[in-house]
UniProtKB/TrEMBL annotation:
Associated pathway: Lipid metabolism; butanoate metabolism
Important for catalytic activity, annotated site positions: 141
Annotated organism of origin: Gaiella occulta
Pfam families recorded: 3HCDH, 3HCDH_N
GO molecular function: 3-hydroxybutyryl-CoA dehydrogenase activity; NAD+ binding
Protein name as it appears in the record: 3-hydroxyacyl-CoA dehydrogenase
């Protein structure tokens, strides 16, 4: 396929904004799509702030920042993605909305465009099956926070062509990421291991009768984690973690995969972590 120059990013929440930031920094033209102009502008402002912080720290030149910011075009119109060489989807972590979006992208995008999903635990194969081009659909799984975490998992679904995975891997590498390729299994590599581990951490809170602060201190200082599990789940989003755990449990049926009731209750109460201002901790 032709060289990738223009990347579409659908959904400019924490993950999508981070992916769009990586893409403009890597020199790609980016079309970022949100459902409202206000949400799009909020994401663009966040990206601008992080790039300016890099300028302050001497990690990026001012002219490079301005050029990167200028490479981001915002839209609320899905049709604006027609010109993209690859589209990376980062919307809500639920199968049906993703399948509907991929069916629309399949209609809108050029037949040779690659369609990538940033899903953490859903089946890439089931998402690809909503299109008439499953050979051009892959997983491109970034980790939170996307601009800082070095890994991207490039996931080959049942019918993905090797060239589509190669194109996604090349984009990941040009963004400065370490790319690990894998096949479409529940949770891929990292979340297959991390989600049950984080679920266990939450269960230990009640079993060992420790506070979130104590658990975080224990895991940071006893296991060398860069941030404790409660801080991490708050960062990822309680809702995102619960959805991912449910998806894994549905496929693998291992009790450790099921989201602990405490997390489900937090999600239902709107305690979603950092993004809602309160999870295990409060964020003002
Ligand atoms: N762009 C540019 N810079 C950014 C940024 C962004 N989007 N976001 C933050 N930064 C900057 C911060 O501003 C900060 O700089 P200043 O303090 O100078 O302003 C700098 O990055 C580093 O911030 P920290 O001091 O907080 O950095 P740290 O050394 O503590 O590391 C971390 C932060 C990389 C997040 C580290 O704590 C870590 O590795 N945590 C674990 C994260 C993890 O496990 N993520 C995976 C989650 S699971 C997942 O994502 C899977 C899934 O599918 C759900």
């Amino acid at each position: 396929m032709a060289e990738i120059r223009t990347i579409g990013v659908v959904g400019l929440g924490a993950m999508g904004a981070g992916i769009a930031q990586l893409a403009v920094e890597a020199g790609y033209d980016v079309v970022g799509r949100e459902v409202s102009a206000e949400l799009g502008e909020r994401a663009a402002a966040t990206i601008g702030r992080f790039l300016s912080r890099k300028v302050e720290k001497g990690q990026l030149g001012e002219a490079d920042r301005d050029a990167a910011v200028a490479r981001l075009a915002l839209t609320t119109d899905l049709e604006a993605l027609a010109a993209c060489d690859i589209v990376i989807e980062a919307i809500v972590e639920e199968l049906e909305p993703k399948r509907r979006l991929f069916a629309d992208l399949d209609r809108i995008c050029r037949p040779d465009a690659v369609l990538a999903t940033n899903t953490s635990a859903l089946s890439v194969t089931e998402i690809a099956a909503a299109t008439a081009r499953p050979q051009r659909v892959v997983g491109m799984h970034f980790f939170n926070p996307a601009p800082l975490m070095p890994l991207v998992e490039v996931v080959r679904a049942e019918l993905s062509a090797a060239e589509a995975a190669d194109a996604a891997a090349l984009v990941g590498e040009r963004m400065g990421k370490r790319v690990v390729r894998c096949h479409d299994t529940p949770g891929f590599v990292v979340n297959r291991v991390l989600i049950p581990l984080l679920n266990d951490c939450v269960r230990v809170l009640d079993e060992a009768r420790v506070t979130p602060e104590a658990l975080d201190t224990a895991m940071e200082n006893g296991a060398g984690w860069p941030m404790g599990p409660c801080t991490l789940v708050d960062l990822v989003g309680i809702d995102v973690h619960v959805h991912a755990a449910e998806a894994l449990y549905e496929k693998l049926r291992e009790p450790r995969m099921a989201p602990p009731p405490r997390l489900v209750a937090m999600k239902n109460a709107g305690l979603l972590g950092r993004k809602s201002g309160r999870g295990f901790y409060r964020y003002d």
